[in-house]
Records
---
Amino acid sequence: MFWRNMLLFNSHVDVTVTFLLLLFLSLFGIGSSSAAPFYIDTYCPKNASYNSNVTFETNLKVLLATLVSNVSMSGFYYTFMGLGTTSVANGQFLCRGDASAATCQDCIATAAKEITRLCPNKTESIIWYDECTLYFTNHYFSRTGIEPRAMLSDDRNISASDLDSFNRTLFSLLNDLAEEAANSQSAKKFATGQSRFDGSSPQRTVYALAECAPTETSTQCEECLKNAISTLPSCCGGKQGARALLAHCDVRYELFLFYNTSGTSDPYKSKQLSWSERYKIIEGITQGISYLHEHSRLKVIHRDLKPSNVLLDSNMNPKISDFGMARIVAIDQYQGRTNRIVGTYGYMSPEYAMHGQFSEKSDVFSFGVIVLEIISAKRNSRSAFPDHDDLLSYAWEQWMDEAPLNIFDQSIKAEFCDHSEVVKCIQIGLLCVQEKPDDRPKMAQVISYLNSSITELPLPKKPINSRQSGIVQKIAVGESSSGSTPSINEMSVY
């Protein structure tokens, strides 16, 4: 449905049929096999309806499509469409902090579809799932108020003999988590924890989480969470599990472990992957992009390839995701051109960033950046290389100094990997980020390179001046009308 909406609202899309891309997605296995989101409740106010506000309805449709297309590892996005007091549509989604990117994507796509079905002709609504919350409004929702809200509780009660000990333990834990989430130094204001309580029955454990939208200040977040906690006694006192969900925050507790306990940020995990796992990921991404470019009736140019748009399953098999910026072109069409530069800083090819020219070779450039990031476990940013412009310039310098392994992630012990295989992948990465599109290989050639020895590969040429490219890309992204913003480049495990 999202791609259909994009066809309706984006005049730059090159084809009028939608089933082709859906076919690509199903054949290639792109997407998630996760269970359907668990629906909790909706807020559909009776006094917030519209009958003939065509402008607001149009803004709302574009808003929901934009929310769906901006799911990333941050698990949060806020934007608005339109101007004025009655026609503007503000919207936001927040995925649970321990949800995978695939789970988040599924939940937001479902929420965007269901919210207008369950709450038709409304100027504001909220839909809550176990995995995410999504809302829209032509006004605003209080950042700390307890209305509107959704409450859900377990039917089972804590035994009377255990209730005092349970309540003391529970509310102490929830208040601690509220402070922890509010003062989180990460991109997410999310905290989980557990605590044991005593009683006449054997000692038991209560598990809880607290979460705020990342845009809340520490004070707003803590106030919102503590207000949510304050609603639990009247609604769910003595219950074995309950949750309070507001517009900007939520809390939950259970007597069973209901959240992901890994406690490790994604793919930080990327730095712990073995070389064989990384090589497998590179091979899988290569096959995925090659399918989109070469093995379909119409060629798909992704235009926003980056690690956060690569989903990894439990077996480290990669899937290409997020086709919100993709373009479909005829199989014999070499390139296209657009006046709307969309994408992510650090991954856009120079010809696309500067002239709006996109082709399969612009995807190849993005792929080359991803390969070098996988090898080095570092971002393509100047901050990661104080003495260089970015990862590309550093990799090129090491290549010219005949020391390419200097860019290899030092957390992997050298004796546990095939050095020639690493060097080959570095060479492939550099071949893909060459300045001129014609110098870059096609993905079919990359597949061949992965099966060849180093001596059979062509020698790369110097990438574009990284400082110049970086300035141009930053300007292009900043002036884009797509609403795209630079995103965290991390692969997502689902």
---
Amino acid sequence: MPKIFKTNAEIATCGGKLLKLTHDSKETGTQMDVNIYLPKQYYDKSKKECHESKIPTLYYLSGLTCTPNNASEKAFWQLQADKYGFTVVFPDTSPRGGDEVPDDKNDWSFGKGAGFYLNATEPKYAANYRMYDYVHKELPSLLQQEFGSDGKLDFIKNKSITGHSMGGYGAISGFLKNYGAYKSCSAFAPICNPSVVGWGIKCFSNYLGSDNKAAWKQYDPCDLVKVVKSTNASDKVLIHVGTKDPFLNEHLRPELLLNASKGTTWEGKFDINLVDNFDHSYYFISTFVPEHAEFHAKHLGLL
């Protein structure tokens, strides 16, 4: 069987290896970069070749302008993946490609690097900007085909999701839209109500249509909590936001998610932690990665 992924680098780090990969995506119509960290448990020769329990996966969705390398280098997920025994997948934030992929070179918060984890419907962007189906459907399937065939890794059934900023919104939105598919969800400084803040309005308008507010609601966590029913008593979404985050009051607005969840089955299930003095950077993210890793490890059955 021909290989799906091209390995551009295989880097020993902590107790496992970080693989930097490229593959052709039918969803985006482009080549896509993705990094995966295989923890030390994957390489443990003392374990049986056929693991009784497969190594689960945590998907990490990055924020505006990021590539798969940002979190791979700065978030320090690898140490936690080794501690608990899960794989980490770092997808890209948008289709890339050349001039055939539409972009706004004058705006870092829209276009390439800012796919907003949705399926665009506006004709200019619909062919390439299909990051929702790419992240939640195509990529896990391709990873399972190539890396899960030996029975050690599980990219589809036992998985959780997290993300930062735009990726935090993408994680919460994807968790709710695929309720039951992910064992847990967390977010670092997420865009909580994109329909009413600048970054979200810009991306929703251009990708989905400025007048198509019904489509906006299909991705906005503050709308999804009203239509997606929580049926599991253990449901909880862990969120950290820094009080000195420069985007807190203009773009993130975590209080709007709390308000939207009131009177729904999600009331009391968003554990939003405002942490003093922290900003929007990877210094902030890496500080709270251990807490998020433990949270996901419990839900993935590793504790």
